[in-house]
Amino acid sequence: MTRADPAPAGLRTVLREWGRIGCIGFGGPPAHIALLRELCVTRRRWLTARDFEDAVAACNLLPGPASTQLAIYCAWRVAGRPGALVGGLAFVVPGLVVILALSVPFLESAPPAWVRGAGAGAGAAVAAVAVHAGITLVGPSWRDTPDRVRWTLYLVAGAASAATLGPWLVLVLLACGVVELAVQRGASGAALIAPVTAALAGGGNLLALAWVALKVGALSYGGGFVIVPLMQADSVARYHWMTDGQFLNAVALGQVTPGPVVHTVAVVGYAAAGLGGGLLAAAVAFAPSFAFIVLGGDRFDRLRRDRRARAFLRGAGPAAIGAILGSAVPLTLALAEPWQVAVLAVAAVALIALCRGVVLTLLAAGAVGAAIALAGGPLPG
Question: What is the pTM of this model?
Fold first, then answer.
């Protein structure tokens, strides 16, 4: 895949257009892909439709936030490496600023009651959002798999791990990918899995935060929502940066703000080490996406056709989908008040049965929580 034929766009154009998408990009990856396609293919004609679809396929083979990588790649195609840096930052920074600003009232020690209620209400719906996100990924993945027995085993492994293993989930995702790669190559999976366990390291609050953010940005597969099970056990149970309620608030904020869902990691970083921690977590989480494109964008065509990359994703992908579905278990167990369970049930019906939008559902759940708080209802501690 080579650079587009038309004259490359200027950096000022990239800054303006990608910044616009960063500001209005509510709704997660589907919305981001649609906005980028409208800009680069339909309106500006910087890329052909085939080029764009190939770019989407290649980004889906990479770990980390695929829509962010697609935004960076499209900017690289039209303005080279400087364009990739400018366009990527323009896409990421607006939502990052918004979510860090919202972290202050939602995570401070004594926020107003209505803020706590809004967070508790929106957080109550997060488990339903996780199930909804997982369900939307099941169909395409199931249709594309060459072996549905192994696909099912990977899905179950991911779901069970997200529900029970917490911070060790990333090893299961990697192991499923390595096993499928080994099966495709006729090798012993166990021999290839062993080195994966050596990847874990820790020490110090900022180092621990950097490791959590790195898992989000470089070791996650299957869409933005897989970051939820990757982060929950670390941020709540292992390092005690946040309470269960605060983590639910963080996930909800990541859904209702523009830009990539991975912005949620900035809220975790803010809880761990203030504004500096939020910026560090975001920088670490997004750095791999920039590195993949800036250093390897011209190799995307080979990546898309590489059998080893596709084999690895056939194992890691279903496991990640299972992890998204399994994350609903600890998210539900984190609810502290009966009315939150009722909000969760209504949100599940709205999202799964009535096909309502995620942002609208979370905002409605937050409004219910704020109303309950203003009426003097019980709030989680």
Answer: 0.75
